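Severity: low
Component: inverse-folding endpoint
Summary: output formatting inconsistent between runs
Steps to reproduce: submit the following structure tokens with default settings.
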């Protein structure tokens, strides 16, 4: 029997929209995802995070092994991909600027 151990880690990535951070998504990261990020963007996920993050469709291309320029990058596709990650896959989402807490 082969070694079926796969190293995974939890990774937090900023999600960008119209040149500003919308928030952060948390997902399980594998070596395959790391490799696809490097081939699609020529940078590590850590470097992409340092530079401000990814838009939803860039993240989709990395996760689903698509060429970066084969994925639509318009507002409708951004929303569709956002819904897929958050509603269908239930990824953790943290808004960049959470609403202030109301004081009693």
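Observed output (run 2 of 3):
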């Amino acid at each position: 029997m082969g070694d079926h151990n796969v190293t995974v880690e939890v990774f937090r990535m900023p999600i960008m929209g119209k040149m500003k951070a919308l928030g952060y998504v948390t997902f399980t990261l594998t070596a395959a995802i790391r490799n696809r990020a490097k081939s699609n963007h020529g940078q590590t996920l850590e470097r992409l995070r340092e530079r401000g993050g990814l838009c939803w469709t860039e993240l989709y291309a990395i996760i689903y092994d698509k060429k970066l320029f084969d994925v639509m990058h318009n507002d409708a596709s951004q929303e569709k991909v956002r819904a897929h990650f958050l509603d269908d896959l239930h990824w953790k989402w943290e808004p960049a600027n959470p609403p202030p807490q109301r004081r009693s």
